[in-house]
Amino acid sequence: MKLKIFLLMALCAVFATNAQMRKWTLEECVAYAVENNLSIEQFELDLENAKIDKSDALGNMLPNLNGSSTVSSNTGFSINPTNNLPTNSTAFNVNGSISSNVTLFNGLRNIRQMNRAKLNAIASQYRLDDLKDDIRLNVANAYLQVISNKEQLKTFRAQLAVTEQDLNRTKELVESGVVPRGDLLEIEATAANQEQQVVNGESLVLISRINLAQLLQITDYENFDIADEEFEIPPSDILNNSAKVIFDKALSFRNDIKFSESNVKLAEDDLKIAKGSYYPTLSAFLQYGTRYSDVTQIPDANGVPFTPNFTDQLWIFDGISYGAQVNVPIFNGWSTRNNVKRSQINLEKARLQFEQDKLDLETNIQQAYVDVTTFFKAYEAAEKTLEARRLAYDYAKERFNVGLMNAFDFSQAQSRVDNAEADAIRTKYDYIFRLKILEFYFGIPISLN
Length: 449
Known about the structure:
cell outer membrane; OMP_efflux; signal; porin activity; four-stranded antiparallel β-sheet; disordered N terminus
């Protein structure tokens, strides 16, 4: 028994360790964010409400069916239900009925409300999908920020390691009297500055990890991390398409545009529904009813009055009524006219918003297109600068090692390399993210592969 308990505890410990060591990929982060985001869950509930509205609209087109029953007792003066004459007695009465009503015509409002409910469900789906698109972009941006900060931290640590080697070597040279002590102090200052860079880099990695975890709504920040991998510039031929081509394609599938277009159609349906109130309403009804009373008296075959039993009375006094009713709107305080005007205004606002959304999309695509070109040039320039700084640093290191350069000038060369490496990393991931945004507008799913 103790062995089983020990094995179970060991197994749990292994699972716990694996859970803590999990490294999240971009695809896993995006999928988890879409699955667990609270805003998405709220929008999904809105979608469920829209589906219920469809059921309501369908129910309004169907006949209703209602049943009623009344049981009463009366003592004293009353009207005899058999002969409608006044009487002074105690009576026990039962009335029951079943009725049905159906709207035959109401200006086609029921049909249009049904169409509107269907369209509203579609619009709610578009809005939900648009939110998912935004979350995917936000997660990708946060993920790339973590990677960028991690790469910079690796660079800072590598630079510090090199400086520490130079520091140890300089100490030996100072002790042997080859170089002045001022050179040692300069390198110590450089090492202290790089140590501060490492601390700041660690803080940036932690903050960016927390930001990503918050997007995923994960609160176990200490055990949350992303996969340890570096990404090179991904191949892409997106710039073979003009910004106009990308915009035209985006109009055909973007969920925010489809949602905005659906709002125009919803406003058109609202206007038709409002105008339907100008028309008469035609409805039909059918009712079956019966009753029982213990004071009922009817003659038998010999003309002698008697009180039929409960079941017999239900059959004797049952009846059916049916008919149609027309309601013609004549004057209702201008409410119908004002509702139509409001619907016309809302339709015009929806159309303007639709045009504004298309204009915003075109502006965003034009900006993304320019950003991709600009940030790629910035990345190329940063790489060239880094290469030049490294060559200059190697030359400065050779001169420093033979005593032809003082420690201050050497530390400046090293600082310029540090800054160039940080700029190269930053511009690389800035370019990757802008590239993914432009591809996303073209319908290419977010991926770093």
